[in-house]
Amino acid sequence: MPIPERLKPTFVSTRPVGPDPIKEGRKRLIVALDVPNAQAATGLVDRLEDQCQWFKVGLELFTAAGPAVVEALVARGYSVFLDLKFHDIPNTVAGAVRSAATLGARMITIHAAGGPAMLTAASAALDGLADPPQLLAVTVLTSMDAAQLMAAGVDRAPATQVELLARMGFEAGIRGFVCSPKEVVALRGLTGPEGVLVVPGIRPAGADAGDQKRLATPSDALTAGASYLVVGRPITQAPNPAKAAEAILEEMAKAIAPRGQSQSL
Fold it and tell me: 213 an active-site residue?
């Protein structure tokens, strides 16, 4: 007698289906819009053909185009990393952080070298907001090596200075940091899995280092524990930015696939 259809056994895999590594990469790749005006920024965003969710607006573009460029990106559904590295007296930085939060930016940078009082004031400035942006303390610029630090009067190795500044920020209540790929492991140990580590100085294998001193490939940075990668010239100066971004996403996917982890803002 044949087995009725309703009684036939079915075998369904109990292994969880992991996230699409390319989609996860898009959530964690930040393209630096280091261009001279809003028109150039819009053109670059259009050429990327929705390969990316995140864009960095830094000093060059913000000085030229102002808050409107952030608002325009937000209106188009993109996430904005506003990288102005506020560094001033505590009251001024607190006010700047509050103003930046109203623009819709999802991440904002301050410079950890501003000291404990400034870091505390910046962190407190976001208290009470329903959906505050992630505050990131910049440690040591990726263009700085030991010789550059020494010239600036800092008699410490870059890694030591990064850890000192990060601990200062952590004690002030900050849980997000910008660091080079070389310090990711140490800072991940400080912040734990919940910390947000944004890492510039990313270059695909074989790419020109430019003015960067402390570098890593996308795959290596993610494997070390980076939350987000900031990539500029390898994408923005490529003949085809969309294809360049796609290649970087494919490299990121190699590191994301085994872990399936994502930190989204």
Answer: no
